[in-house]
Amino acid sequence: MEDGGGATESVSTPSQRARHAPLRALAGALRHYSVVIYGFTLSRLTLLVVGLLTERYVRPVTTLDPDLRFSPHRWLNMWGTWDTGWYVGLAKHGYQPLAGPDGQANWAFFPAYPALAAGIATVTGLSAFEAMLVISNLSFLAALVLIHRLACAEFDRKTADLAVILLCVVPGSYIFSAAYTESLFLLCLTAAFCLIRSRKWMAAGTVAAAAVLTRNLGVGLLLPYAWAATERLFLDRKGKPALRPSEVVGIVAGILPPMFALAAFMLHLRSRTGDALAFVHVQKAWGRSFGDPFSTLLDGVLHPDRVPDVNFVSFVVAWLAIGVLVRLVLLRRPLLLALALFLTLVPLTGGIASFARYALVIFPLWLVVANALAARPKAAIAVISVLAMLSGFMMVAWTLALKVTM
């Protein structure tokens, strides 16, 4: 008690500080990831409002009938279209033994996303479609946290904040909340990459296996894994802890889970269809054929009339991705570059269709763009503003199920 009747100062004891430590840690995490929380929440709410306004005011003046295919609630149904039907069918019935009359079959779609949705639906009573929306949104939020952490480690806090904002406002960002695999795949990619970077070999391989079972492009994680393993085994011994035999075993063992995952999926397809490579062979039913990615892009430049209108956005995005790849080469980030090259060039071997959607998950490119904008605040504001406006227009098109959004 102070002289003159002053108030008594409270002094926290060690036990009180220990009790409050989790709350302080939580408050610190919320402050650190505030851009993730605000970016995710505001962008998802904005897209939802745009979609509802489209249903209320735009659809009635078009000839497009609402197709309440996945949910009787319009605010939910708008998050599913095209490939969603394949995933819902997989969650309910598994892989079909025979292709349809048009040659298409669900063999092209990998099992992790629908299987996880089926499990959640069984436990919670949600429909498979509703479970997919839960998975997508939670996965996107978790992926943003990991991308922010990775960007802070690779670059700086400003780059991290901008990378998160870009992913939230980029045209096509609605895919991350839709019943599509992009969010789960992005989460698996970023989680596995962070583990590779930390040299947690077995954990990295296990998460990479989850990525492979989500999308076949998950095998691309083997490239940064191999690079990091080579560095650890042969190149960066100086100043690092001695390489123990157990770590060598871990490096070798970490390669196996993604390979086993792909092999297990192929064996399952063989048991259902008689063709272990059915997921490859069925691509022709969608008009996909494999070839040189650069010839397709150059042909589009020389003969713009040959680029279908529905693929124009993907064509532009493909060239932008190539440009960002060049900058990534100059930044000398070999792990990021290895993954970005694979995720960019391999899809382009099958043509430019849907590449704008595929590019959304190439997080190394977003880190590069964010880093370039971090030193140019005015340019960053302009780019984010333009992307946000375009995202609104694309959400209108998505809600109306126009093919330009595929």
Please identify the structural class as seen in this structure.
mainly alpha
| SS summary, helix count | 18
Low-confidence stretches: none
* Mean pLDDT figure: 88
List how many beta strands DSSP finds: 0
Amino-to-carboxy terminus distance:
71 Å
Radius of gyration: 24 Å
Q: What is the overall silhouette?
A: globular
Main β-sheet, in a few words?
none
- The helix content, as a percent range, equals 55-70%
Name the quaternary structure: single chain
What's the domain count?
Answer: 1
The percentage of residues in β strands lies in under 5%
What string, H for helix and E for strand, traces the elements in order? HHHHHHHHHHHHHHHHHH
Keywords: Endoplasmic reticulum, Glycosyltransferase, GPI-anchor biosynthesis, Membrane, Transferase, Transmembrane, Transmembrane helix
Pfam family, one: Mannosyl_trans2
GO cellular component, one term: mannosyltransferase complex
Membrane topology: Multi-pass membrane protein
Task: Characterize the structure shown.
This protein has 406 residues and is mainly α. It contains 18 helices and no strands. α10 runs antiparallel to α11. The longest helix has 29 residues. The model has no long low-confidence stretch (mean pLDDT 88).
Which labels suit this protein?
406 residues, mainly alpha, 18 helices, 0% strand, globular
Topology:
Layout: H1 14-32, H2 34-58, H3 74-77, H4 83-93, H5 112-124, H6 128-154, H7 157-169, H8 182-197, H9 201-214, H10 222-235, H11 245-273, H12 278-281, H13 293-302, H14 312-331, H15 334-348, H16 355-358, H17 363-374, H18 377-399
